[in-house]
Structures are given as structure tokens and as C-alpha cells.
């Protein structure tokens, strides 16, 4: 197994946290819900939104780069991801299914090449494939003074 990256979270209040991503392009994610109403807070689902954003970013980045590798020139891309919330068989709430919709405009790529790219991506990008397979989680939770 190869270590890919590490993120770290720092939380100093009931309302604020930040995540150091280790990324040069997007080094810190900051969150502050102190101005939200209780109803707004209940609908934030920030972890779920970040998971959906990761899927959206990975899948569309793969598509964009696959078009370039095929000799095409991507010009524009619009995408959305719709997330459902449901109860599983143990009555635990979970996110899923995710519905990802993408429209891409490109030139210098044949329908045949695009169909090949599309079919490969329907098997998933790194993040979406990982989500589909499920991710093994290990936990180390400690109370400190």
C-alpha cells in the first residue's frame, strides 16, 4: 500500500473548524457555522458535501484529461451531483445513491473516441470507484487531557 496524502483538522469551537489539505492549490478548507440558524445547521451535511465534491472533482478531472490524452481539446465542462439520503438495513442514515451528470464541450475528438472515454469512466474515476467499492476505515480515537 502506498501512502497518498494526509489531511489534518483543527476545531476550536462548536462552530468553526479548518482542514489543512496538504495541497498547494487548495491548502485550507475553513468552515464556520456560527451565523446559521439551527434549521440551516441541520441541513449543512458538510461531510457529505465534501465527499460529493471530491467525487465531482475527480470524475470531471479524469474526463477532461482523458479527452486531452485522446488528442481532443476540452473547451468547457458543466457538472452536478445529486445526493440522496436514505436508511440502510440497520436503520442508519447514509448518503447514496449519488447521481452525477456531466456535459462537456470539446473539439478534435470523434464520437468513437469520446464513447470509449465515457465507457471507461462509467467504471469510475479514482474517487468514484473507491466510493462504489467501499473504503476500509481504521479508527484511533483518544481522549487527551
Give a topology summary:
Elements: E1 8-11, E2 16-20, E3 28-32, H1 38-42, H2 46-69, E4 73-87, E5 93-107, H3 111-121, H4 126-133
Helix pairs in contact: 2-3, 2-4
Strand order of the largest sheet: 1-2-3
Number of helices: 4
What general form does the structure show? globular
Largest sheet: 3 strands, antiparallel
Beta-strand content bin: 25-35%
- The ordered string of helix (H) and strand (E) elements is EEEHHEEHH
Given helix and strand content, the structural type is alpha+beta
Number of strands: 5
Helix content: 25-40%
Radius of gyration: 19 Å
- Poorly predicted tracts of residues: none
- If you average the pLDDT, what whole number results? 93
Cα distance spanning the termini? 34 Å
Which keywords apply here?
145 residues, 3-stranded antiparallel β-sheet, alpha+beta, 4 helices, 33% helix
Brief synopsis:
With 145 residues, the chain is α+β, with helices and mostly antiparallel strands. It is built from four helices and five strands; from the N terminus they run βββααββαα.
